[in-house]
Write a structure and sequence with these properties.
This protein is an alpha/beta fold. It folds into 3 domains: about 35-95, Transferase, Pyrimidine Nucleoside Phosphorylase, Chain C (Transferase, Pyrimidine Nucleoside Phosphorylase, Chain A, domain 3, Up-down Bundle), CATH 1.20.970.10; about 110-355, Pyrimidine Nucleoside Phosphorylase, Chain A, domain 2, CATH 3.40.1030.10; about 360-450, Alpha-Beta Complex (Aldehyde Oxidoreductase, domain 3), CATH 3.90.1170.30. The chain has 17 helices and 12 strands. A 4-stranded mixed β-sheet has the order 1-4-5-12, with helices on both faces. The two termini are about 30 Å apart.
Length: about 475
């Protein structure tokens, strides 16, 4: 087992903490052509699990056309799916490729997934914190699109770090460092890649059944034993209202557990950036400062520790889970696991201690001040994310290139008191024109008033696995 902090033993691993899948699910009773499956869903009928499996297997094999997949996605968008259908769709997409088997490891295998936000670099800290608690974290992450940042884009700012290792290296790093944060490989849930690309250009991205299957098919393919979900709500979230965020969280938890993966969710606030930095290298720097204890944004700390404790509890951990993650962070073991992971995946061995030398800096750095004094009443968090995109630090198309050095730092939070001596934030830009535009966008994203607004609850809700 990888070196971890000495903690109380795990009392139990919970249902589904280790499993192995073999091969794609085959249709047993439904031999309907794809168009008949589309028609049945278009007409509001519930599809049988093997009917869904046959359709997704056909998409992966090329016998279901992209046009048919687009029609299927639109039918699901308007007609919805039952929980049974959602479980079947998730399993079918999982089984379109290979499924990892971690049964040779001697402790639970866990992961976390966030629905995305601005300044959300939790994964960078949480994976090594959990590794220091003695569990394994094979974290398969994605890239940013639109206003939300991507975990892989952050790691791409570290020189040499390999975000797409082969399976042998991935397994080696997980075993030796306790965690590895990488991108989705070609053989993990390939049907999801196909269907997501189709949804992206057909106006069906927001469908909760399709979001659920997309997220969970990759997590099931990763061979996990427990999963914690961070579902965002607020002005910077994919689901801006609490009602929609709760609907997505409920769907994810019920489907994941229905598919055999013990899962819970926490709904967290995204009405302001979670970290005080937004931008790839800036968020990496923020994460290293967090792990070393040099600086920890209070809201970021609370969300990170709450998620860590929650996923340990899902494994059946018998001790005080919150105390365990706090000890792993405060004792310095978490940053050791982070450093080991970075080095094993090709990054600099001295990255943590020589971060300034390895992270590229933007050529132009400028503080931005509000035009009036007062307190921060509201923040258009999505607008801040789009400001990072405009600087070149994000993408609107999957093919866009990223400038990892640019972004915003020292962002003021809700309730902060601003004055000529206290800025809204700091712009990191490539040139003068980009800095001017970023400054304008940052000011426009903040509403300043004489009195602070009541704070939003940082943790809006918690959804436990069924039966807990």
């Amino acid at each position: 087992m990888h070196p971890g902090v000495s903690l109380s033993p795990f009392a139990g691993r919970g249902p589904g903490w280790r499993f192995v899948r073999t091969g794609p699910t085959q249709s047993s009773t439904h031999d309907l052509p794809p168009q008949e499956t589309i028609i049945r869903k278009r007409d509001g009928l519930a599809l049988a699990p093997d009917e869904i499996a046959a359709f997704i297997a056909g998409l992966a094999a090329g016998t279901v056309s992209h046009a048919q997949a687009a029609a299927f996605a639109m039918a699901v968008f308007f007609r919805d799916m039952t929980t049974t259908e959602r479980v079947a769709l998730t399993k079918a997409m999982r089984d379109s490729g290979s499924v990892l088997d971690w049964s040779d490891l001697d402790a639970p295998v866990v992961d976390k997934h966030s629905t995305g936000g601005v300044g959300d670099n939790v994964s960078l800290m949480l994976a090594p914190i959990l590794a220091a608690c003695g569990v394994y974290v094979p974290m398969i992450s994605g890239r940013g699109l639109g206003h939300t940042g991507g975990t892989l884009d952050k790691f791409d700012s570290i020189p040499g770090y390999v975000t797409q290792p082969d399976n042998a290296l991935f397994r080696h790093v997980v075993r030796e460092a306790g965690c590895a944060i990488i991108g989705q490989t070609a053989d993990l849930a390939p049907a999801d890649k196909l269907l997501y690309a189709i949804r992206d250009v057909t106006g069906t991205v927001e469908s909760i059944p399709l979001i659920t299957a997309s997220i969970l098919s990759k997590k099931l393919a990763a061979g996990l034993g427990a999963l914690i979900l961070d579902v965002k709500t607020g002005s910077g979230a994919f689901m801006p209202t609490l009602e929609r965020s709760r609907a997505l969280a409920d769907s994810l938890v019920s489907v994941a557990n229905g598919a055999g993966l013990r899962t819970g969710a926490i709904i967290t606030d995204m009405n302001e950036p979670l970290a005080s930095a937004a931008g790839n290298a800036l968020e990496v720097r923020n994460a290293v400062d967090f792990l070393t204890g040099a600086r920890q944004d209070p809201r970021l700390r609370e969300v990170t520790l709450a998620l860590g404790a929650a996923v340990l509890e899902l494994t059946g951990y018998s001790g005080d889970a919150r105390q365990a993650v706090e000890r792993a962070l405060g004792g310095g073991l978490a940053v050791e696991h982070f450093s080991r992971m970075v080095a094993l995946l090709g990054g600099p061995a001295d990255f943590v201690t020589a971060m300034d030398r390895h992270l590229r800096a933007a050529p132009l750095v400028r503080d931005v001040y509000a035009e009036t004094e007062g307190r921060v009443v509201a923040i258009d968090t999505r607008a801040i994310g789009m400001g990072v995109v405009a600087l070149g630090g994000g993408r609107t198309l999957p093919t866009d290139t990223i400038d990892h050095a640019v972004g915003y730092g020292r962002l003021a939070g809700l309730g902060a008191e601003l004055s000529p001596l206290v800025p809204l934030g700091r712009v990191h830009a490539r040139d003068q024109n980009a800095a001017d535009e970023a400054e304008h966008r940052l000011r426009a994203a903040y509403l300043i008033g004489p009195d602070a607004a009541p704070p939003h609850p940082l943790i809006a809700d918690r959804i436990a696995p069924p039966g807990d």
